Amino acid sequence: MPQNTVSPSRSLGSMPTTRAIRRPELRKMVPLADTTIYEMEKRGEFPRRFPLTRRCVVWDLGEIETWLAQRKKAAHDSAEPAEGPDVRARRTRPVHR
């Protein structure tokens, strides 16, 4: 094995090595719209993306898997269904009841 490679079980500095995923793979795992993910990131409710280059952003696969597991656990622990979005608060085409 070459000297400059790092196995997945080792770490680089203080951060453990992990796999980064780009948007197409994230969309397969998390069926949310891009704007929903962006807004959740801003509110701190979704793992934050980070730039690899000026034009390429990625998400940490481990953080996404942990987030999904937490959401799944919360759904199973909750006796009542998750609260849906307030459709009257939409910026475009609000629903009138």
Describe the structure.
- β1 (11-12) and β2 form a beta hairpin.
- The protein has helices spanning 23-29, 34-43, 61-77; strands at 11-12, 15-16, 20-21, 50-53, 56-60.
- The strands form two sheets. It has a three-stranded antiparallel β-sheet with strand order 3-5-4. A two-stranded antiparallel ribbon has the order 1-2.
- It contains three helices and five strands, in the order βββααββα.
- The N and C termini lie far apart (66 Å).
- It is α+β, with helices and mostly antiparallel strands and 97 residues long.
Summarize the structure.
The chain has helices at residues 23-29, 34-43, 61-77, and strands spanning 11-12, 15-16, 20-21, 50-53, 56-60. With 97 residues, it is α+β, with helices and mostly antiparallel strands. The N and C termini lie far apart (66 Å).
Sheet with the most strands: spatial strand order: 3-5-4
Helix content: 25-40%
Low-confidence stretches: 1-12
Mean pLDDT: 81
Beta-strand proportion: 15-25%
Shape descriptor? flat
Reported for the largest beta sheet, the result is: 3 strands, antiparallel
* Number of helical elements: 3
- Given the helix and strand composition, which structural class is it? alpha+beta
Distance between the termini: 66 Å
The strand count comes to 5
